[in-house]
């Protein structure tokens, strides 16, 4: 009976151990599959993030190209009227291109004759125009384009835009080409989720194919294949142009640390089960609970890290957008509204005043004899005069007053809820403040004066009419001897 009891319990223990081992094997398989799926999802997300960032980089180049191609200074440089601007801002030894994240800048006329080209220090083609000519030839049939092209087996971003004046009043007189090289460091900076990145010359048959539509700056997935060897997840990503020609292929790798730790743990655990039957059952159950908890904590940590990275990228993107907004809406020299931004706010205020039957005044201001400063003392002194003038005006107007530079030495104010008489008084005060400006050059004290034209919205149907009246009055002040304020009240 005792023997039967032992045999019976022995069989029960053996059966229980076998069932437990089977249960452990099944549990191991399920967890491995789940974590394999998790690793695959993480890898796919990393690849998607990389492609999104490449797309964002193309869009960023496009924004920079649009900003610089609508610059009066570059437009005049192409016309041979402002030869100093480009050499001053993009001269050899400057870091302008590096600060913008670019590798090259090329300016041509409408016939694609190179007027100027500049390259960063780390480029291998900065001593010859062969690179510039090749890049121009690759996109010469298109007036405006953003894409990736090949040059000597290397890939480059390229953005081509026509060159206009800031107000787009004149037709284009040339083209601007900008871009940057796509190398290993560039991809690494965009793909923090991978262990290693490298360019390959002979891509395998099953790869991630990503087609780039050069017109819409659009990236789309084609097919995906992940290969795992020695706990390393390896993927290939190929980029094609819109004619399905291969541009470049990169191989990205990521170590599968989660699966590796789980396999080592289960090997040790099952070894203990063979020697410690009953104890192993309790031990496995306990360890299983700890491992599940560990996996949840690991997943939470991964999600937390990804969330932190995403928030950081969003913060950086916000700063970039703020900088781009300032570039697009602010006069770079005087830090006031540029012509386009001023007209936008002036029109909005006029419509609001017209709708609500409010008073509105416009003051046109022109620095007297400004050409003399440039001709006699040079453009650097002329720029200082503009800066001192703008700073003086800004210190003596309210935050609600719209102030902008329309071009050259001409500025304008829009004053809300103000009678014409009060606007004239304000202009007189500003005139006196401007007379206080003194600039010492070569032991000479230069005095600055300005002429003013003041108009209101009486009998005006649009903001352009107000500005035209103020401009005519400004011209009258100039003819009457300068350093004067003129309005319609002077002719009543």
Q: What does this protein look like?
A:
- Helix content is 51%, strand content 23%.
- Strands 1, 2, 3, 4, 5 and 6 form a six-stranded antiparallel sheet that branches. Strands 7, 8, 9, 10, 11 and 12 form a six-stranded mixed sheet that branches. A five-stranded mixed sheet has the order 14-15-13-18-19, with helices on both faces.
- Among the domains are: 2-37 and 258-326; 339-491, Alpha-Beta Plaits, CATH 3.30.70.270.
- Helix 1 runs antiparallel to helix 7, helix 1 (2-69) runs parallel beside helix 8 (277-329) and helix 2 crosses helix 3 (83-89).
- The chain has helices at 2-69, 72-78, 83-89, 96-99, 130-138, 184-190, 257-275, 277-329, 339-356, 370-377, 379-395, 420-435, 463-479, and strands at residues 104-109, 114-119, 145-151, 154-162, 174-179, 181-182, 196-200, 208-213, 218-221, 227-229, 232-240, 246-255, 360-367, 402-407, 410-416, 438-441, 444-447, 450-456, 485-487.
Key structural traits:
alpha+beta; Alpha-Beta Plaits; six-stranded antiparallel beta sheet; 51% helix; 23% strand; elongated
What is the fold's blueprint, element by element?
Blueprint: H1 2-69, H2 72-78, H3 83-89, H4 96-99, E1 104-109, E2 114-119, H5 130-138, E3 145-151, E4 154-162, E5 174-179, E6 181-182, H6 184-190, E7 196-200, E8 208-213, E9 218-221, E10 227-229, E11 232-240, E12 246-255, H7 257-275, H8 277-329, H9 339-356, E13 360-367, H10 370-377, H11 379-395, E14 402-407, E15 410-416, H12 420-435, E16 438-441, E17 444-447, E18 450-456, H13 463-479, E19 485-487
Parallel strand pairs: 8-11, 18-19
Antiparallel strand pairs: 1-2, 1-5, 3-4, 4-5, 4-6, 7-12, 8-9, 10-11, 11-12, 13-15, 13-18, 14-15, 16-17
Helix pairs in contact: 1-7, 1-8, 2-3, 7-8, 10-11
């Amino acid at each position: 009976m005792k023997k039967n009891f032992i045999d019976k319990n022995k069989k029960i223990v053996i059966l229980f151990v076998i069932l437990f081992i089977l249960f452990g094997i099944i549990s191991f398989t399920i967890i491995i599959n789940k974590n394999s799926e998790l690793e695959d999802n993480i890898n796919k997300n990393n690849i998607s993030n990389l492609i999104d960032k490449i797309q964002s980089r193309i869009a960023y180049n496009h924004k920079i190209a649009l900003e610089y191609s609508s610059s009066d200074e570059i437009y005049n440089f192409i016309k041979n009227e402002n030869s100093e601007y480009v050499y001053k801002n993009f001269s050899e030894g400057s870091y302008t291109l590096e600060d913008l994240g670019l590798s090259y800048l090329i300016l041509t006329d409408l016939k694609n004759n190179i007027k100027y080209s500049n390259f960063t220090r780390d480029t291998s083609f900065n001593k010859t125009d062969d690179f510039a000519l090749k890049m121009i030839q690759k996109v010469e049939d298109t007036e405006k384009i953003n894409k990736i092209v090949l040059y000597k087996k290397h890939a480059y971003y390229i953005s081509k835009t026509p060159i206009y004046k800031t107000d787009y009043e004149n037709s284009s007189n040339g083209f601007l080409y900008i871009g940057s090289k796509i190398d290993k460091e560039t991809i690494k900076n965009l793909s923090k989720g991978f262990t290693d990145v490298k360019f390959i010359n002979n891509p395998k048959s099953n790869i991630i194919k990503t087609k780039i539509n050069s017109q819409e700056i659009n990236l789309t997935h084609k097919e995906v294949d992940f290969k795992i060897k020695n706990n390393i997840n390896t993927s290939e990503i190929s980029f094609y142009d819109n004619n399905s020609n291969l541009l470049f292929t990169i191989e990205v790798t990521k170590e599968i640390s989660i699966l590796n730790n789980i396999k080592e743990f289960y090997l040790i655990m099952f070894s203990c089960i063979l020697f410690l039957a009953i104890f192993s059952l309790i031990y496995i159950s306990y360890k299983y609970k700890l491992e599940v908890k560990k996996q949840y904590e690991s997943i939470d940590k991964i999600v937390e890290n990804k969330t932190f990275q995403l928030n950081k990228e969003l913060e950086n993107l916000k700063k970039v957008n703020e900088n781009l907004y300032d570039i697009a809406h602010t006069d770079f020299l005087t830090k006031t509204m540029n012509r386009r931004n001023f007209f936008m706010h002036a029109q909005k205020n006029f419509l609001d005043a017209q709708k609500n039957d409010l008073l509105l005044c416009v003051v046109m201001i022109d620095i007297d004899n400004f050409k003399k400063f440039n001709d006699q003392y040079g453009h650097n002194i002329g720029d200082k005069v503009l800066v001192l003038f703008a700073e003086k005006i800004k210190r003596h107007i309210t935050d609600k007053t719209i102030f902008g530079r329309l071009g050259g030495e001409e500025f304008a104010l829009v004053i809300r809820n103000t009678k014409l008489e009060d606007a004239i008084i304000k202009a007189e005060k500003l005139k006196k403040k401007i007379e206080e400006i003194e600039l010492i050059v070569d032991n000479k004290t230069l005095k600055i004066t300005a002429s003013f034209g003041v108009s209101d919205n009486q009998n005006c149907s649009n903001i352009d009419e107000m500005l035209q009246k103020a401009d005519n009055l400004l011209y009258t002040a100039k003819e009457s001897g300068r350093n004067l304020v003129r309005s319609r009240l002077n002719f009543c």
